[in-house]
Records
---
Amino acid sequence: MLVNRKLILAHFWLAFAVFGIALTLGAWQMFIRSPIGTWLSNPELYYRSLTAHGTVMGYVFPTLVAMGFGYAISESALQQRLVGVRWAWAGFWLIVIGSVMAVIPIALGRASVLYTFYPPLIGNVFYYLGVVLVVVGSWIWVALMSINLRVWRKANPGAPVPLAMFANVAGSYLWAWTAVGAALELLLQIIPVAAGLKATIDAGLARVFFSWTLHAIVYFWLMPTYIAYYTIVPRAIGGRVYSDSMARISFILFLVVAMPIGMHHTFADPQVGAGFKFIHSAFTALVALPTLLTVFTICASVEIAARVRGGRGMFGWIRALPWDNPMMLALAFSFVMLGFGGAGGLINMSYQLDASIHNTQWITGHFHLIFGGAIVIMYFAIAYDLWPHLTGRELIDVRLMRTQLWLWFIGMIVTTFPWHWVGILGMPRRMAYFDFGDPAIAPQALSVTLSAIGGFVLLASGIMFIVILARGMRAPQTDAGPYRFALAVHEPKTVPVALNTHALWVALMIGLTLTNYGYPILNLALSSGTSVPAVYVGAQ
Amino acid sequence: MSAQDTHGSASAEVAARVERRWATIAVIIIVVMAGLAAFAGIHRATMPQPRVETIDPSRIHLSGEFVESNLGSVLEASGAVTVRAIGQQYSFTPACILVPADTPITLRATSADVVHGILIQGTNVNTMLVPGYISEQLMRFTRTGDYLMPCQEFCSFGHEGMWGKVKVIDKTEFANRAKGGGRLSCVGQ
Ligand code: HEM
Ligand SMILES: [Cu+2]
Ligand SMILES: [Cu+2]
């Protein structure tokens, strides 16, 4: 029962609108720094664009998708009207106001600090305040998800929480806690300096705070995708979830192990000692576990669908899958990109291998493949699947949907494979310009050109996506029926308390964060003489 | 027709067994990976810098290890080489680092203003320069020649122009040049 459709549609439309803008900026960046682009006489414009692209793609877009999807899950999985609708709208408007507030100084070139902030570079205070408002808006969503689940529990004592909602709430808690790192950095360190109340800042401590956010935020981006793998895909292709409890265990593992590992982002930093780097790198290995479990469960669920459709043989069942179904196509593409991206991730997480690609274009290639590829393609699939239920109108153009997904997949491969390669050659990231005339850099020219071409394929696919959804708003009306989630092969009648509640796991998440971050943060915060003068962007 | 026919306790047992097997494999993969990383770290000495060293960036030009006259490469009595460098918007000092081949080298560097990074292309030398802290990295070059050394972290509007160079020369030639004492670099050569 989707009652508050307007609320959900507002989140999705805003998400896809800002996505479209940021995607255009991304394609422009790729082009302008490639050999086929003309030299940008003012490199500063590149960094404005990069700050906008990163801030939107990293913070605004995925947060809005998670929120809109979360509200849809809450109403349809719990079959309960959303409690706190006014608060939900307040959260939405906070994000609108925050985004506008952040984008104005970016456009004026007053906040070209990139989405990672990295002090002592300091931009205009309104940029940071805007980001804070976006996060506060999303925290309202976290609270609402928790409240709605509690209301449902009261009405259904002891009943198993539907998997989609269980995962959704786990994701919201993960986000609430992982955002705390950047929030502390912004509120305690950066904003006082940006507002002119202080003139110095500890850059090393800021990087540690940011790493607290930077790792687990990627699992927050990933949550809607994983929820779709488990609870939408099997239903959409006519199968069942292989194992309900394995699904719950995977989401719990994300909650617990995604947090205490962020310092792998500081492998090359001087302000963290080797001991904590080692601890975080060991914990990082653990985070592969929920993904490995997911790959297994989803493949098994897909196989069930194929066998139900009459598929036979060791691998012959693959042919029996409904390949003309956009959900099936999106899942397959997502898994291929997850596979390549995951292999790249294993390289990043090992200290020794990371040294040769740290902060090179390999990293940008890697996260575009995983995030822009494996994750975002499932955001598309979620939108396609939900749209008829939100608009009451059918999405007729299934062929166009398939083309769009194909283009996104091809575009992503063409963009990111050469992008990885130039990273291995040592091409640094975040640069407005490269002198491809230099014989040492010339070998990278072809790869960068390929990436730029791939970028335009992605742009075309993104435009198609928005066109499909917009046309869906004017299609003939239908009754799509209630929105349903996949059933498990063995639907749980009862679930152990540990797999039905979050309290224990949230406590573990917080506890592990404190043990893995407490000492390094206190140590840096208490050591004197490490604060350095702020350098204001655009002040020259 | 639905997935009903996979129901039943026998199939549930099979499912649980397959699942357990996969979980075991997953755990083994992870333990092996973590073990390999630990082994390579200890055995091959490819470990991050062990200690955290701090420094006041507003005073580095005035006194101490990173004053201008102390920057560059120096041949230690032990035969090893120490390179000291700083990064600032938007250049490295020295802009061209001169080092010998086949020699253990310690790079010590810091930043005078914002966060920068040092990356030597074609090698795995790669470290952040965070103002207030000293980065130390061990390196060793087996091939003589020129290497590009870009700044790998955004450091404001001139970041794209912050490229240094490393020149690796023959060991004996380096020793000859080092005879006069002082700090070596290849700036202007
Ligand atoms: C048309 C497709 C896209 C292209 C061509 C593109 C291109 C780029 C480029 C050139 C950069 C800067 C790399 C550098 O200078 O080091 C970048 C950064 C980034 N992109 Fe994209 N992008 C695209 C789509 C996406 C998508 C779909 C996402 C995620 C949803 C995304 C997220 C990001 C993020 C988070 C950054 C980091 C910004 C930073 O380093 O400050 N991009 N992108
Ligand atoms: Cu991470
Ligand atoms: Cu730089």
Note: Residues 9-43 of chain B form the longest helix (35 residues).
---
Amino acid sequence: MAQVTLDSVRKIYPNGVEAVTPASFQIKDGEFVVLVGPSGCGKSTLLRMIAGLEDITEGALCIGENVVNTLDPADRDIAMVFQNYALYPHMTVRKNIAYGLKNRKTPKDVIAQKVDEAAKMLNLTDYLDRKPAQLSGGQRQRVAMGRAIVRDPALFLFDEPLSNLDAKLRNQMRIEIKALQRRLGVTSIYVTHDQVEAMTMADRIIVLNGGRIEQIGTPSEIYHNPASTFVASFMGAPPMNLVAAEMQDGRLSFAGLELPLASSLRGPVTLGLRPEDLIIDSHGPLAMEVELIEELGAHRLLHGQVDGQRLTVHLAKEEQVALGPLRLSCRVQNLCLFHPETGARMEGGFAFNLAQTRQEERV
Amino acid sequence: MADISLSAATPVVPRRRFRWSTVVDHAILITGALIMFLPLLILVQTASTPDVETMKYGPGLYFGDQLDDNFRKALFEASGFSGENTGLAMFKNSMILGLGFAFGKIIIGMMAAYAIVYFRLRFATFAFWLIFTTLLLPLEVRILPSYEITQKLGLLNSYTGLIVPLIASATATFFFRQFFRSVPEELVEAARIDGAGPVKFFIDILVPLSQTMIAAMFIIMFVYGWNQYLWPTMVTTEEGMYTLVRGIKQIVQVLQGGNEIPEYGRANVLAIIAVLPPVAIVIFFQSWFVKGLTESDK
Ligand SMILES: Nc1ncnc2c1ncn2[C@@H]1O[C@H](COP(=O)(O)OP(=O)(O)OP(=O)(O)O)[C@@H](O)[C@H]1O
Ligand SMILES: [Mg+2]
């Protein structure tokens, strides 16, 4: 177990692509950190640098106390689970799991005992003598996990380990991995492009965009205080509504919504509204034209337009709705304002008059 | 329900439709097979007939009774002057050549391909294409310099001289390179994390994964080595080192000497013996062969 520190770690591929701009962060001992971002944003590159599979162009990487930049993957005391599992096809499950130990000259009886333990933990005991080709996707995934855990590494690395599984199995494995990590208390870095996985599994999330870190925070921080429109629209399903609004004379106006804000900002802003913060209210200030109702069982999503801008509303299943016009109000304490061009969160200039907000909880 | 079980109980046997095209196809194939088979039949026929008759009438229609006798002579009696080139000895030499040739080529080809595919060598691609172009330079083109070098090294009439000069193989290198490139990158990375160095990765993972490929290469290379004629003819002058293919020639060669009747029967028995191991190997390995060249179990 160990903490991981990145100090301005940067990656430029030989072809000149800067896949990771200098990134600095620290992962605490035992923490489960999820790297999330769209395809091609450099998640795998960052993870592979930590694993030692890719050279670090600049910066320092520490696992535990030591700088490990030049250390071989085998000597970094890490274990990695790959997207396609990367099991050795010609070895039985038992041999697959034991291979790393065998290479480290672990005594035979210790190996046997550890493999049995890992197999028990992962419900693989009945499959130990099968080859990977004779296993289902989920079982292969478990074997890959087993290969990682027998070695008692200081750090687990996962590169989209669940993306080859079907939705149901993915949910199940997600919970299993998380539980296992809790139990073993091993520091873990988990790469995914699935924001649900990120939200549910992470102690902390690192959101990457185009090789740059957009935000680091707990799932709830990321969800409630996104640092940019990118994070706001990437995290959360459905994503945050982002609409063009106007600030003037301490008032924020969007469609029929008028909010007093103690702010010196003026001019256009991007207003972020979570779909679940919009409420049906017959006297509400927003007039929405509902165009589509998505039935999701536990809740419903309304898609439509307010003042010519697309908006999604999240509703509990009890609420009655129909296509056509509808009036909404919103919970103002969760509003976010972003710079209309850069998309960056506008913090300082934006503080609700809290007293007023409480009063006007439903504007 | 009843209907279903009823119809299931009395399966209708579909009558095969008679098609002229099928008959024609088969006729062509059978004719082809017979034509291919004819030389083999002549071989057996000649091997079973007394040499005098063969000399007089050429290949005949009836099998003789000499097969036994010729067989014994071929295997255990020497044909040359030194008395060393019995069929058995030549069989052994051929076997050594075939096996040495096949294993040598596989080992060297695999190692070359391993270096080219997995190590960041500066001129790996260039080196590969250089190796590849040697396909255009078969032994026959370079046979004089090869002979000279072999001779200067004092390797004439030795197994080393028979095998080593032929052992570099662009074909094997090429096939193994293609195969290694299709092995998923993650497997290498997983092995690195599992603490397997280059040698361990090669032996523990790459070689077992290449099994079918190795088998396919083995067949091709064994047959190729077994059937070598020109090189053994040049390198071996001692009869004890003759291979089967070379030995047959020597028996029939007596004809040119003039006085004796060439031992056709005996030579043909040797020819039969020479044909058998490649056939056996192909039959034995054929399922692997097809697998090795077509699919890959990764
Ligand atoms: N070996 C390489 N050489 C050059 N560029 C590369 C190499 N590998 C990746 N890249 C580039 O680096 C960027 C980041 O790639 P990376 O594989 O880290 O993305 P990712 O976030 O893991 O995406 P995904 O979710 O699709 O796996 C991409 O723009 C990619 O084109
Ligand atoms: Mg990736």
Note: Residues 348-363 of chain A have pLDDT under 50 and may be disordered.
